[in-house]
Every structure is written in structure tokens, then in C-alpha cells.
């Protein structure tokens, strides 16, 4: 396979840039920072975890409502980059603002986190849709997988710097508080995200589009309505989205609530940060491995593998008690976290009409985001009712089972079938 083009590398590099937000804000430092602030305000661990789950649900609901509408408008020539720029700027700015909010204002922290999350997820909608512009269908699995792999590798650098500052502050080796150290991590994240997005702005352009016309907003709603009326025409695509709705719910919930879950189990913040760092390192080669194995066995079969591994994760989480158990759980997640997301993205990209990529990735977003509302709510409600976070994670297994059963009914993209035949004959 030929080397990556400038456009492919620039697209891949955005994962390197934005994944700093995913690990530091969504997964590691901010949840711990928020949990400490909520605890100091007298909120119980189960309730603070539930409030975080509700906040994630609100953020994802907002974007789920906007995704298909904005995506349909963005299919017009020149609009995709504009929408990407707006949400990217929103995410970076409010990530930076988190550093200037007093640590005792836990509710304000959650509000600003909501805005930053909308910005991050919104930018990803249009970033994912750029996949059809930068590469061919035959290369999508590998390019998408390399994006996630570079994301894991790139995120470890600001993550290591951030946790080093936090640990040094905790050990009183440097004369700052842990609170200040966490706020420095928020600033590092915003800067990293902003600087390393420059290649995408310079080199990635919208190649597939619908020519501009008068009243683009009105006509976008008409096109969206037409797509919904002709849904049978895209049966394979929407059947995949239903499967994706279920299994990605569990994936996203486990990612976004892992540190809050670990805190409830009594695992120290230092141990949690180290575990998350190792998870990122292990996930990088496995994401590439999924991409390469998808060329040998097809993307759909590798999605089966990822879903089954996550079902094992849910079962193991129910019996989880010790830090060692959490380590084992994290390593299981690391083997499939990037692969299942990367192959879902490329599988969907092969099914969509390229000139309507934004519209359909808007649907991809709405299915993924509505699923992300259900998962955190399920974990939050279960945690409050049972007083036990393990039960909430275990309940996610139902979503993986349903997702797997529906995915089995989705036909293979033609390019995957052709590639599979070539590998078999070879």
C-alpha cells in the first residue's frame, strides 16, 4: 500500500490534536477535578457520578439535535470547513475557560464542560465527514485506524506532562496546589488541540459537495426531509446506524465515566492517571492492528470481535473489586477501544453517498449521541438506586448484545467484500 498523502496525514493528525481533550478533559483530569470539587461541596460519590452522567447526557442531546441539520447545510460547497472551525473554536475556548473557574464552583464547572463537550463532539462530526474527501474507499479502514492510533499516541504527550505536574504538586516537589496543577492541564489541552489542528486547516479541503443555491437553510431542511422519506433506499446504512446506536453507547459510557467509576471503587487518583496513560499506549498499536486485520477478515468481522470483547468487559466489571481488577479491565478496553471506533467510522463512510457525507455523518452523530444519552443515564440511575457503580456498568451488556444481533444483518460494503476476496485468493 502506498504511503499516506499530505491530505491523509493532515486528517490523521487531527486525532493527534483533539485526543488530548478526550483523555484529559473527558476521561482523566477533569472528572477527578470535578469529583473533588463536588465532594468538598458535600455531595455523595454516587450523586456526583450521577450528575456527571446527566451533564454528559445534556451535552450529547444538544449536539444530537443539531447534527443532521448542520450536516445537511454543510454539504454545500465551502460550508464543511466553516462548521468544523466554529465547533473546534468553541471546544478550545471553553476548555481553556475551565482553568479560570474557581474549584468550589462545581455547577459552573459542569456548565462550561457541557459547552466544551458540544464543541469537541461537533468538530468531530465534520472531521469524520472529511474522511471521504481525503482518501479512497479501499484505504478508509487503514486511514481511520491510523487516526485513532495517532490520537492515542499524541494524547499521551500532554497527558504525561499534565499528570507529572499534578503528581509533583501532590508530592509538594513544586510549590503549587493540586488544583492549580489541574488547571494548568486544562490550558495545556487547549493549546495542544489548537496548535496541532493547523495541518488540517492548511491541507484538507471539501472535495465532495452540493453546489450552492439560494435559501440554503430552507433547501437543506427539504433535502433532510427527502432523505427521511427515502429511508428504504438507504436500508443498509440505517440498519448499521441502529446497530451502532446500541454498541457505541456502551463504548462511549465506559470511556467517559471510567475515572468516576474507578474513584467510587476507592482507586487513588494517581493510580487512575497511570492506568489511563498505559491504556492509551496499549490502545495505539491495537487500533492499527484492527485496521490491518480488517483488510484480511473484513471490517464487519473485526467489529464483531470488538463488541464481544466489550461484553466480556461488562461481565468482568460486575465482579471488579481491586486496583488489579481495574488494571485488567482497562487493558481489555485498550485492545478494542480504538479499533471498534475506527472501523465503525470507516464502515459508515463506505456506505454514504460522498456528496451527502455531512448529512449522513449528522445521522451518524445523532445515533451515536442519543446512545450516549442513554448509557450515562442508565449508569447514573442504577448507581443511585443500588448504591453500586458495578451494577450500572454490567447493565451495558444488553446494549452490546442487541448491537451485535443487528450488525449481523447489515450487508458488507462492496469494497470490503472485494478486498476480502483478494486476500483469500492471495
Automatic annotation (TrEMBL):
The lineage of its organism: Bacteria, Bacillati, Bacillota, Bacilli, Bacillales. SUPFAM superfamilies: MFS general substrate transporter (SSF103473). It is a multi-pass membrane protein. The chain crosses the membrane at residues 12-34, 54-76, 83-101, 107-127, 148-168, 180-201, 236-260, 272-290, 302-320, 326-348, 360-379, 391-410. This is MFS transporter. Residues 236-426 form the Major facilitator superfamily (MFS) profile domain. GO terms for cellular component: plasma membrane. Signal peptide: none annotated. It is found in: Cell membrane. CDD domains: MFS_YxiO_like (cd17482). It comes from the Bacteria. It holds the Pfam family ATG22. Keywords: Membrane, Transmembrane, Transmembrane helix, Transport. GO terms for molecular function: transmembrane transporter activity.
